[in-house]
Design brief:
alpha/beta, eight-stranded parallel barrel, 10 helices
Length: 240
């Protein structure tokens, strides 16, 4: 199982988010570059960057959308080139994805709102380059779409292979920043009912959480706050 540290970036600062609420954030003294170096020096070979400004303001024409672009564009040049960089946050256009890959980003995470470009992105860049990120409240997908009934995570996940998607990042925002535990039940459901590679985020803060996720068959554990606040030691995690 891969261990992937997350660097959340808000207004060019490193932050953590509580239960998906951008109004409830903790700021950290280390810059995104310093966190990246810290993780890499301790053995990380994968990093997940989350552009929270772009996520909150997904329109590329909005001035807030581009606040972190300079940091992201030079990140690959500032770190060990062997480190895989994954980027998520507000990606909804083929043009943005193309620009990110040109700057050295290795994989992108497309949200539920980018569903219409899943197929084209996979055909253009390959299935290994595209991850679909699902933010959920338990088993219910968080979406801006007006629906007659809640969209269940498993129903959404089961349709992803039709677009060529082979990877999913599941985050239960009820768990985000709480350091309680991941949503094992929903993770297990996705693993048993699909053949997707499953990345898990939210609530991971103990070695026993990682051991159980690995036992379930999770492909990657994505961890933020527990690393920032030293609840978990990355070198120990990499040995799980």
């Amino acid at each position: 199982m891969l261990i992937i540290p997350t660097i959340y970036i808000w207004n060019q600062q490193s932050v953590s988010v509580y239960k998906g609420d951008i109004n409830q954030i903790d700021r950290y003294r280390r810059t995104p570059f310093e966190f990246a170096g810290y993780f890499i020096n301790r053995g990380a070979r994968h990093l997940y960057l989350v552009d929270l400004n772009a996520s909150r303001f997904p329109d590329p024409e909005h001035p807030e959308h581009n606040v972190n672009k300079e940091i992201i564009s030079i990140m690959k040049k500032e770190i060990d080139p062997a480190t895989e960089l994954i980027l998520g946050g507000g990606l909804r256009s083929e043009q943005e994805i193309k620009m990110l890959f040109e700057t050295g980003i290795d994989k992108v995470v497309l949200g539920v709102a980018a569903e219409e470009i899943y197929s084209k992105s996979v055909k253009t860049y390959g299935e290994e380059k595209i991850i679909v990120g699902v933010q959920a409240k338990g088993d219910e997908v968080i979406t801006d779409k007006k629906l007659d009934f809640p969209l269940r995570v498993i129903d959404f996940a089961e349709k992803l292979p039709l677009s060529g998607i082979t990877q999913i990042l599941y985050k239960d925002v009820f768990k985000e920043g709480t350091q309680i535990n991941p949503n094992y039940d929903e993770v297990d459901r996705i693993l048993h009912m699909t053949d997707l590679k499953v990345y898990v985020s939210g609530g991971i803060s103990k070695i026993k959480h990682l051991e159980l996720l690995k036992k379930l068959g999770v492909y990657a554990a994505v961890i933020g706050k527990a690393f920032y606040e030293h609840e978990l030691d990355i070198e120990e995690c990499l040995r799980v």
